[in-house]
Amino acid sequence: MAAAAELKLLEKSLRLSKGNKYSAQGERQIPVLQTNNGPSLTGLTTIATHLVKEANKEYLLGSTAEEKATVQQWLEYRVTRVDGHSNKEDIHTLLKDLNLYLEDKVYLTGYNFTLADILLYYGLHRFIVDLTVQEKEKYLNVSRWFCHIQHYPGIRQHLSSVVFIKNRLYTNSH
C-alpha cells in the first residue's frame, strides 16, 4: 500500500487547499472542492470518494458489494451522527454503540482497511483525545480500533497522538 499516496489523498480531502471553500449549512460548514475540469463537489464523503477514485485507490471503497455498502453506511454515519455533535451524552451513546459493533472486528468493514476507517478516525479524534483512562477502558473496542488506525502509515498526520495503556489499570477481582 502506498502510504505517500494515501497521505496526499487525506490531505486533499480533509484539509482543502486555499482555492477551495466551505459552504455554510446551518451552523455546520460543508467542504467544497473545485475540480479542474468539472463542477465543484460538495460534502465530505462526496469529495473523499472522488479523491479515492482519482488516486486509483478504489479498494478503499470496499471490494465486494456488501463491503462497499458498509463503507457507504459508515461514511453516512460520520456525517449524520458524528459531525456536529458536541454534547457529551450523545458522544458517549455513540461510543457505546460503536464499541459494541467493533467487538468482533478489526476495521469497520471487518478485516479490510477502508475510507470509512479513515474518515471516522478523523471525525472521532476530537472526542477520543479528551477521554479519561477509565473512559478509554470502558470503550475498549473503540480504543483498540482507534489506536490501530492512528498507527496506520500516513493516517495521523497533524493530529495529536492519543495515548492508550497496554494493560488494564483496574481489575474486578478484589
TrEMBL record:
It is found in: Cytoplasm; Nucleus. One of its GO terms (cellular component) is aminoacyl-tRNA synthetase multienzyme complex. Keywords: Acetylation, Coiled coil, Cytoplasm, Nucleus, Protein biosynthesis. GO terms for biological process: positive regulation of DNA damage response, signal transduction by p53 class mediator; translation. Residues 50-173 form the GST C-terminal domain. PROSITE patterns: GST_CTER (PS50405). SUPFAM superfamilies: GST C-terminal domain-like. InterPro entries: AIMP3/p18_C (IPR053837), Arc1-like_N (IPR053836), EEF1E1 (IPR042450), Glutathione-S-Trfase_C-like (IPR010987), Glutathione-S-Trfase_C_sf (IPR036282). Its main location: cytoplasm. Positive modulator of ATM response to DNA damage. Part of a multisubunit complex that groups tRNA ligases for Arg (RARS1), Asp (DARS1), Gln (QARS1), Ile (IARS1), Leu (LARS1), Lys (KARS1), Met (MARS1) the bifunctional ligase for Glu and Pro (EPRS1) and the auxiliary subunits AIMP1/p43, AIMP2/p38 and EEF1E1/p18. Can interact simultaneously with MARS1 and EPRS1. Forms a linear complex that contains MARS1, EEF1E1, EPRS1 and AIMP2 that is at the core of the multisubunit complex. Interacts with ATM and ATR. This is Eukaryotic translation elongation factor 1 epsilon-1.
